[in-house]
Amino acid sequence: MQPGRSGITAHILLVDDDTSLLKLLGMRLESRGFRVTTAESGREALTHIEETSPDLVLSDLRMDEMDGLALFHELQRRMPGMPVIILTAHGSIPDAVSATRQGVFSFLTKPVDRDELFEAIDEALKQTPTTRGEGGEAWRSQIITRSPQMERILEQAYMVAASDVSVLLTGPSGSGKELLANAMHQASPRADKPFVAINCGALPEQLLESELFGHARGAFTGAVSQHEGLFLAADGGTLFLDEIGDMPLPLQVKLLRVLQERQVRPLGSTKSFPIDVRIISATHRDLDRAMHEGDFREDLYYRLNVVNLKLPPLRDRAEDIPLLAKHMVAQVSARHKPFVKGFSPEALNLLASSGWP
């Protein structure tokens, strides 16, 4: 049996509208040493999630009102990275393929084989981050906060960092999306590989294409040497695509192909190169609206938005403003030795009450 995130006995939330099976499965799990909470519906399960944070959710697929997949999607929205195992008496290959493609950890058919169930649970818990490890909080050292809202986002980010799923960070400009992307990279198994960032809205289309995918010598006027591109530069690590909503449509098509095929062909080259890159993207735009207006490809959107983390604007985390202000003064003082050493209480009050547009 695997320990939970806190290093103690793992806590499993068991969801099934068949009360007799719920009791039987609960007893079976408890006999193995797990701590078990039960729920007779998806709605009840969500109430338990608000009250406690289980290490794993084990849910029936066919339930009234909210089925197992609907519950999974809501869990993914509220607690990205939470491992979910789905059980069904109506198992089929299409159901299993669909569920696992959407991120469900495992899909088991009733009656569940005891050993198969425990093996699936152990594997899921192995892939769930259990402790902060030797690095403690070092992965998030660049993020200055004491906001409960931000702490919840950081906990979700830490859980998601262990997997390779694509993450879309949303929130206004200046809310810390690149800092969070870098922190997730530091918390991931890819931390010893490159973290490469690019602003997709800051470069003209041809230059952005060359920067991302690379080019062969002579591919265009001025291409006097070969350029490997950022996908190859980030191989084994993380590529952060900032302001992905500003990427031109023709490049969106090429990006989608790279993500699908896991290989990149530089401009002007006849050879493709395999890549192993984790994608984190970010935008301040409403991509749902851009998608419906034809400015952003729907297939690319769903490739990038496997997990969505929404960062709050500064005006919604006023408790962080004094911390950030003091941190920035300390940075400036270290570089330039200015006369100003801090803020008066009145100045901090003015900063904290600002609308921060």
Fold and architecture overview:
The protein has 357 residues and is an alpha/beta fold. Helices cover 40% and strands 15% of the residues. The chain has helices at residues 19-31, 42-51, 68-78, 93-101, 114-126, 148-161, 177-186, 205-213, 230-233, 249-261, 287-292, 298-304, 321-336, 345-352; strands spanning 11-15, 35-39, 56-60, 84-88, 106-109, 167-170, 195-199, 238-242, 263-264, 273-274, 278-283, 307-310. Strands 2-1-3-4-5 form a five-stranded parallel beta sheet, with helices on both faces. The chain has a five-stranded parallel beta sheet with strand order 7-8-11-6-12. Strand 4 (84-88), helix 4 (93-101) and strand 5 form a beta-alpha-beta unit.
What key attributes describe this structure?
357 residues; alpha/beta; five-stranded parallel β-sheet; 14 helices; globular
Q: Within the largest sheet, what's the order of strands?
A: 2-1-3-4-5
Mean pLDDT: 83
Q: Strand percentage, roughly?
A: 5-15%
Nearest-angstrom radius of gyration? Answer: 23 Å
Parts with pLDDT < 50 across at least 5 consecutive residues:
130-134
The number of helical elements comes to 14
- What is the tally of beta strands? 12
Structural class: alpha/beta
Through-space gap between termini: 50 Å
The profile of the biggest β sheet is:
5 strands, parallel
- Percent of residues in helical segments? 40-55%
Question: Oligomeric state of the chains?
Answer: single chain
Overall geometric form: globular
User: What are the secondary-structure elements, in order, as H or E?
Assistant: EHEHEHEHEHHEHEHHEHEEEHHEHH
